[in-house]
Design brief:
The structure is a single chain. With 759 residues, this protein is an alpha+beta fold. It has 25 helices and eleven strands. The strands form three sheets. The protein has a five-stranded antiparallel sheet, sandwiched between helices. Strands 8-9-7-10 form a four-stranded antiparallel sheet, sandwiched between helices. The longest helix has 35 residues.
Length: 759
């Protein structure tokens, strides 16, 4: 059989970018090696500089109130708790009392520790367990999160353990955050150890060649190490969440492998078609390279939308995500072509699938894609049925999300055996009142004793309020002292503790926050506490969510238009991508909020979802869905430009990318599932949720919904008004290598491309 080679795109030889990338491949790889080594040094210890909070709005009323309370009443905001267990002797036994007081005095004498109080000093029933066996010593460690964590790390071993007749455990918000940070670092290392070897095996199965399989993995490692160095630099200027490291690993491996898969596969296609190494690299950069660039931009835009939110937890994922996406794309477009230029035909070396490839590389590639072409044909023959059933199924899977309840992250994210979690569990179950659920009303401005008492009476009468303690003023210990001091000197700061009925962050507690803020007072008031932080966080997200969604949608529409020249395809892409996320959101509520599979997956359901998680998961999953969408659309558009055959182009695109997208999705899902093995619930939710979204997008949306919808829209798929066609002709970029190349007019199609090999 005569050899027929695919015509190279017009535009001829390598462009300036190709010449730049391929001029000195050995030098490029050497520079990359040096920069990677420097990144290892620069990014070392980055996790130690990260925080484990960031869920609150820094400009909210609740946040400002906490800052004032920390300054004026440090004892009101303890962040370290010592749980003192006296056993059967009881907390009031003389020996226990003496030892507990010694512990409190020792803690109070430590540098950086303030506001120490305990049951044995105050006699407060809230600090004594119901059975009388346990008591609490509360304190505040001053300073920023990192500095406070270092002090806790130094003090905890001194106080933890047996002290005479008592056993001491360390807990409190600061201990929870410190233990969470430690566990995340350990889990991330384990996830990498799980993901890397499995990924390598999968890549070998995809490529057959061990040499080709190593290239994507190398690109991923370069992207991860480079992003760690970038994050280390960002921590010098702003707070960064330790959770962002999980996204660095997931996207660093996932996207770098996606991009490298696409580039290496196209390079091997060109070699199999008879091109020499340099021409194959040039064509690969001009086609697959442009698609990678577009894909990286769409993913980066989706992640950049998180920058509009004030919570540094969300902003941290934008920092990490944008950095790792751009570095992965840069490595795939600079280092990988250099390596391919040096390897040439040796990219197929160490072929582990010789038996399956006896008919040649191109023939094997054609056989691998034949099933996808037949599947696309079947879907398009039954397009209305496939479109309706698939869309309805995705909507049904997303229905549980209609019952979502938002909450705040607490110690129950940690495994049940974590020390700080154990302390908080015992406080919840064994102590009176509502530990951690109380609201604090900060009063600022001069007031008389009568005014303080009148305000207390009014807020006690509010619906949903179980108890009000205070007011407490600086230097006083209770309401009577506070009233006397206020009457004598006119204090300017005081606070009330308001205990709501029911759950500390439930709907009732959130209503109480609104009522407290609406209640008139003779002084300025501000409300804080877990429910108030939740209300403010929901308000901040709700206020900015339309802007974030608009940024993602508008920029995605523009980028896909520039890629395809159509106004219909971008709209399809946005709608179908959103549909691909429904299963993820439905599963998040069904599993993590309602607690199904909690025992199997090893987490504690709190009955709600942390407010920022759906935003984060949407941005990440939408960006990854667009990543696969761009790969598929670029090949469809390339074929349509060449032949004008709409259905043939859809079949060709799915045949050429179906296996590739599925392989990339499976590999990324493996990485995300490895992240999902974390013992921290939020990380588990992120990893498993995004893994599900990626698989649904690749195996359902790209395989069934996209070809069926494109069949239904027919040639209208590529329609654009004349002004936009002219705009695309000038600025658009297509994988075919010709900016703005218009599709053939109806009836002017050329013969579809025939791919044969030398026989």
């Amino acid at each position: 059989m005569a050899e027929v080679k695919k015509a190279l795109p017009t535009g001829g030889g390598p462009g300036r970018w190709t010449r730049l990338v391929t001029a000195r491949p050995r030098l490029s790889l050497l520079v990359a090696l040096v920069l990677t080594a420097l990144a290892v040094l620069a990014g070392g210890g980055v996790a130690d500089r990260m925080g484990s909070g960031g869920w609150e709005d820094p400009d909210a009323e609740s946040t400002r109130a906490i800052q004032v309370l920390e300054r004026e009443f440090p004892a009101s905001q303890p962040n370290v708790l010592l749980l003192v267990d006296a056993g059967s002797a009881g907390v009031d036994a003389p020996a226990v009392v003496a030892e507990a007081r010694r512990l409190a005095e020792r803690l109070d004498a430590q540098e950086g520790v303030d506001g120490v109080g305990s049951y044995w000093q105050t006699g407060s029933p809230a600090l004594r367990s119901k059975d009388g066996r346990q008591g609490v010593i509360a304190a505040r460690i001053d300073g920023e999160e990192k500095a406070a964590g270092e002090i806790l790390q130094r003090l905890a071993p001194e106080f933890r353990g047996t002290h005479g007749p008592v056993e001491v455990s360390v807990g409190g918000p600061l201990a929870v955050r410190h233990e969470m940070q430690t566990i995340i670092q350990e889990d991330l290392l384990r996830a990498e150890m799980i993901a890397l070897p499995i990924t390598l095996v999968l890549l070998v199965m995809v490529f057959g060649s061990a040499v080709a399989a190593v290239l994507p993995l190398g690109i991923g490692i370069v992207a991860i190490l480079g992003t760690n160095a970038v994050l280390r630099g960002i921590t010098e200027f702003t707070d960064v969440s330790v959770f962002a490291q999980n996204l660095t690993t997931a996207l660093g491996l996932g996207l770098a492998i996606d991009y490298a898969l696409f580039v290496v596969r196209r390079f091997r296609e060109e070699l199999a078609g008879g091109a020499d190494t340099r021409t194959a690299v040039a064509t690969t950069l001009r086609t697959a390279g442009r698609t990678v660039l577009f894909s990286a931009l769409t993913v980066a835009v989706s992640l950049a939308a998180m920058l509009v939110f004030p919570q540094y937890f969300l902003r941290s994922f934008a920092y990490a995500g944008i950095a790792v996406v751009l570095l992965a794309a840069a490595a795939a477009l600079i280092l990988l072509p250099a390596a391919l230029l040096l390897l040439g035909d040796r990219v197929n070396a160490l072929d582990l699938r010789r038996v399956l490839r006896r008919r040649g590389t191109a023939d094997a590639g054609r056989a691998e894609g034949a099933g996808w072409g037949r599947a696309a044909g079947l879907v398009m023959r039954r397009a209305p049925w496939f479109a309706a059933v698939t869309a309805a199924g995705l909507v049904l899977l997303g229905l549980p999300f209609l019952g979502v309840k938002f909450g705040t992250a607490d110690d129950r994210q940690l495994p049940a055996t974590a020390e700080s979690r154990v302390v908080q569990d015992q406080l919840r179950e064994g102590f009176p009142g509502n530990p951690g659920g109380a609201l604090t009303v900060l009063a600022e401005g001069p007031a008389t004793a009568a005014q303080y008492e009148d305000y207390r009476t009014r807020i006690e009468a509010l619906a949903g309020v179980a108890r009000v303690d205070g007011p407490v003023t600086a230097g006083t210990a209770g309401a009577a002292d506070a009233a006397g001091s206020a009457g004598a000197g006119g204090r300017t700061h005081a606070y009330y503790t308001v205990v709501p009925e029911g759950e500390g962050v439930g709907a009732g507690a959130q209503r109480v926050v609104g009522e407290l803020r609406a209640e008139e007072a003779p002084f300025a008031t501000s409300v804080t506490g877990a429910a108030a932080v939740l209300v403010d966080s929901k308000d901040a997200i709700g206020e900015r969510l339309p802007w974030a969604a608009a940024i993602v949608a508008v920029v995605t529409l523009i980028l896909v238009f520039l890629l395809t020249g159509s106004v219909v395809v971008p709209l399809q892409a946005v709608v179908l991508n959103a549909l691909s996320l429904t299963a993820m959101f439905g599963a998040v509520v069904w599993v993590f909020q309602e607690g199904h599979l909690a025992g199997l997956l090893g987490f504690t359901s709190t009955g709600d979802i942390e407010t920022t998680l759906p935003v984060l998961m949407f941005c990440v999953a939408f960006g990854l869905s667009m990543d696969y969408g761009v790969f598929l659309l670029s090949r469809i558009k390339e074929e349509y430009d060449a032949t004008g055959d709409h259905e043939g182009a859809v079949r060709h695109g799915l045949r050429r990318t179906g296996g590739l997208i599925t392989a990339a999705a499976v590999i990324l899902a493996v990485v995300m599932v490895a992240i999902g093995t974390s013992r921290v619930t939020n990380t588990k939710m992120l990893g498993l949720g995004v893994a599900l979204a990626v698989l649904m997008d690749a195996m359902v949306v790209r395989s069934l919904l996209v070809p069926s919808v494109m069949k239904l829209t027919g040639r209208l798929t590529w329609w654009a008004p004349a002004p936009l066609r002219r705009l695309h002709a000038r600025f658009g970029i297509s994988e075919g290598g010709i900016p703005g190349a218009p599709a053939p007019e109806a009836g002017a199609a050329r013969e579809p491309e025939k791919e044969t090999v030398a026989g």
